[in-house]
Amino acid sequence: MLGGYCGKILWVDLTSRKWRTEDVTLEMARKWIGGSGWAAAIVPKMVQASTDPLGPENILGFFTGPLTGTIVPSSGRHCVAAKSPLTGIWGEASVGGSWGKALKHAGYDALILTGQASEPVYLWINEDTVEIRPAGSLWGLDTYEVEEAIRKRTHPRAEVCAIGPAGERMARIAGLFTDGQEGRAAARCGLGAVAGSKKVKAIAVYGKKAPALADKEGLLKSIKAVLPTIKERTKGQTNFGTAGLVLPCQQLGDFPVKNWTQGSWEEGAQKISGVQLAEKYLTGRFHCASCPIGCGRRIAITEGPYSGVSGGGPEYETLGLFGGSCMIDDLAAICYANELCNRYGIDTIEAGNLVAFSMEAYEKGIISKEDTGGREIKWGDPDTLIGLIKEMGEGRGFGAILAEGFPALAQRYGDAVQEMGITVKGLSFPAHEPRAYNSIAVGYATANRGACHLEAFSHTFERNLAMPDLGIDQPLDRFSSEGKGVMVAKAQNLMMVFDSIAACKFLLFGGINPTILSEWLTMATGIVWNAEELVQCGERIFNKKRLYNVECGITRNDDTLPERILRQPRGSGGAATNLPPLEAMLDEYYAFRGWDANGIPTEAKLRELELL
Amino acid sequence: MLGGYCGKILWVDLTSRKWRTEDVTLEMARKWIGGSGWAAAIVPKMVQASTDPLGPENILGFFTGPLTGTIVPSSGRHCVAAKSPLTGIWGEASVGGSWGKALKHAGYDALILTGQASEPVYLWINEDTVEIRPAGSLWGLDTYEVEEAIRKRTHPRAEVCAIGPAGERMARIAGLFTDGQEGRAAARCGLGAVAGSKKVKAIAVYGKKAPALADKEGLLKSIKAVLPTIKERTKGQTNFGTAGLVLPCQQLGDFPVKNWTQGSWEEGAQKISGVQLAEKYLTGRFHCASCPIGCGRRIAITEGPYSGVSGGGPEYETLGLFGGSCMIDDLAAICYANELCNRYGIDTIEAGNLVAFSMEAYEKGIISKEDTGGREIKWGDPDTLIGLIKEMGEGRGFGAILAEGFPALAQRYGDAVQEMGITVKGLSFPAHEPRAYNSIAVGYATANRGACHLEAFSHTFERNLAMPDLGIDQPLDRFSSEGKGVMVAKAQNLMMVFDSIAACKFLLFGGINPTILSEWLTMATGIVWNAEELVQCGERIFNKKRLYNVECGITRNDDTLPERILRQPRGSGGAATNLPPLEAMLDEYYAFRGWDANGIPTEAKLRELELL
């Protein structure tokens, strides 16, 4: 081995059309790991709190982790980050697929776009060749089409990250999509709009520089030892994808129903479950790079009104929000709506919440036919869902208004959004219920990007997982509140590690813990890690993002949940009566975090984390 | 641990009086280790081959290694580097003492001076406080005096690196001196003149930031395991210092006698041996930072004409060149001459060779009383030695001419210097004989800074040491030539590692090998190393310096030795008849190095070492 893992960032300035590479510092590698950690180190340094997210001063960063593109299982992820145009605060999205691996194999750990192109462009990164090419003729293509078109112009095995028409128009619910019709999405926080603002239609990457491993044999041996357990314990994900969660989550009251107003939807869930998906439409599995699980679904619908739908199948989140929250039990319709979102380049979580919101607001007369351009909006109606998604994707009618996201809707409809727009800090709820797991309440309230189940992923420690490395010796009771503030903070710190190295959190189900991660990281990079310092890095990273949000004006007032979640028991289902006692848990959370009562990190904590 | 070893360089620009810090890249840490390796990475990038070494475009770098200032035994060294004003090529000097440790404990791995001050200054570096202070009133003080004066102005335990009057006047044989009257010297290559050209009288450092160790317990355990062996096998150095080498080296014909013309000097050597020094003048030992050996001598002369001499005692090199080469057997006189050199800030190796040259040239009538300003120059005469050193130090008379070094003398005396000036590439021979060890011939001819016994330290593998890590399974016959080219190249690669990490090569005597070094390095820094990649780094570092020399015009023609060494057997002593077959060994050396027949590294080799 010569050199080994060194960490290289490719900076591309779209305004000047110049690029350069940066070798990262040893301090950067140690203090910030990679992936989401590098995003936390770089975005706040480059983008002021006052910056217009859609202006040339925002940056758009793609950060792989030190394990991305290696032989480590489920390591094929990367983080995309910018100031969010949807929420105006910390913006980040994580995505699997093969694009991150390809960037790493092209020789770069990260790609950061600055400035703004004057005309549509796409980037072609082939190891030492970095080109900014015109994309005028690609503008308007959907994400499936653009991959095909760009592969013809570059390399047949180039990996393409692209925006669809929604991103081009800077719709604030637009994401960045990879892997063509597999529909892997860095969907959240409207980062597709940032790409659109920079006039970047796509980024194609290819390379053959597999990362040097400091101790390949040791790594292989360690992986082999745990691989059977990972495979065994993730069989559900392998067989049914995340769609397999529909039935258990519904049963537990963890499933959104009728825009977060009801507690159960048994019959509907049966119709859109992972089993149904597998039996009716499944044609194969999709594995992200290096992943033994393969939770991605490949589907094809060959008959009925949605015949012709083909490609990536809907995830649990999509099923929860298009299905339960909109009360739509037509699985084929959901598959079609999912494909539309992928093609247009739209976040299905935002879309599902926005449509459910519209259904409720329309029913209550807050939105009228005048607003919708004559469209009738009905609960459980596939045509409503599909129609509104087409409008969002194409920037037409009422959908164009929805596609600006809840913060913009709040300007227009005021209190109605306050009541029915189910977000934290402007980011819509994913399909997990804070009333079903008390820790989710704290997790959503404090997640740096807004309502996010993956920044803490804490409900997993209220269900069946323990994590002795973090002092979580056994799973906690989901309806208890004591200790939940502490547990969520610890879980967030650990999840920052996953997002930074960057690996899939499903490894948790296979028994992977910080100790194993630190061993893999050491053997892969040749930088010595241990579990404790890895988790402390996670804490540093979480706090750094919080500091950015504090600069953007975030305080305790924003660390809250919609009234509906805090005050309205649902009365049915697996969590019929529970309401999360957020403020008490938040007090505990702040105290453990070393934040003051207003949610601001104290100087002592910042000093401890070397953030001062 | 938070962060651990991260690598920080302090840049001080003397012209603008501004300073900044740089966090080194992970690539820098991996490819270039530290110390001499960082020098190799940085000096050629900053200083063009055409740059005037005494102009503002030269830089002066002080590079500790990742082990400097740690608990690793004998790790208290650092490297000083610049373009050499003496030789006009790669300039480097290594020094022990406590200054490197102090710089590290002030929070910096390296200090690099750029530009030129307009008035005399000294630097005061106290952790985050970096000051460029006026040194007008310190100008003219000798190196012992200036330490005392600066400690009064800064901190009583500040470590001071200073030039004496010779460096102030930019004498090209001036060095940089640390540890006050202990007389630790980065003496070679005239780097004191570079400090003088920048008007930097001294650099005082102090700090309490002991470097974080990634695995302190493991490191302590590993050190404890080998410490008894180190102590046992370096007893000679502990008891008699490097002066203890006088007798064995004389016996082996490894000792310079009468300007490299004779093979033995038995009676004289007896009078100036380490035993004599210990019995007559020794008052104590001096240990460089973290060193269990303590080869430094503390002496005091309390009677006779040199009564009052006190402080660091002469090293083997000084005894060889002031004693054997000048035929001076008055140990007290040598101690005094040594003290004078330390105070004036002069390299004793250059001074000894220059005086011996003068003695021979005067005897042969090439230099006359006219040249010497009336001074009679006589073999074996202490007054000649002392008188000329005073002139060198004070810039007076014939000594002022000598103090410009052999390359300048060659301009003046032409062929005489060609014949009697015993240098490679303008740097004088240290007190080891290429005719006594064939490997020394290759080592001197190819050392990047010119005649240097420490860039290869290869005679140790022709005497009593093996090094299986390098494929040197047993010590080689010193008079054989086959395999010597290969052995020297390997030894140089290993010595680059010692100079980069930065530790004392005397550890070799204690059985320390690349395997142990790589373990220590891993446990100290938290960057994983193994022996093979460590030695390959050494190879990269050696080649990088060679590339710089090639830019400066060095080719095979310069990889040679004086005719005297190549063609004149000495006829007596332990190596009476041997002449090193340099060209054949050089062919082998170039072939093994992957250099072409003219001594230029091939593209394939540079690619292999990631130098292209």
From TrEMBL, chains A, B:
Transmembrane segments: none annotated. InterPro entries: Ald_Fedxn_OxRdtase_dom2, Ald_Fedxn_OxRdtase_dom3, Ald_Fedxn_OxRdtase_N, Ald_Fedxn_OxRdtase_N_sf, OxRdtase_Ald_Fedxn_C, Tungsten_al_ferr_oxy-like_C, W-dependent_AOR. It comes from the Bacteria. Its cofactor is tungstopterin; [4Fe-4S] cluster. One of its GO terms (molecular function) is electron transfer activity. Residues 5-209 form the Aldehyde ferredoxin oxidoreductase N-terminal domain. Pfam families: AFOR_C, AFOR_N. Keywords: 4Fe-4S, Iron, Iron-sulfur, Metal-binding, Oxidoreductase. Its EC number is 1.-.-.-. Belongs to the AOR/FOR family. This is Oxidoreductase YdhV. It comes from Neomoorella thermoacetica (Clostridium thermoaceticum).
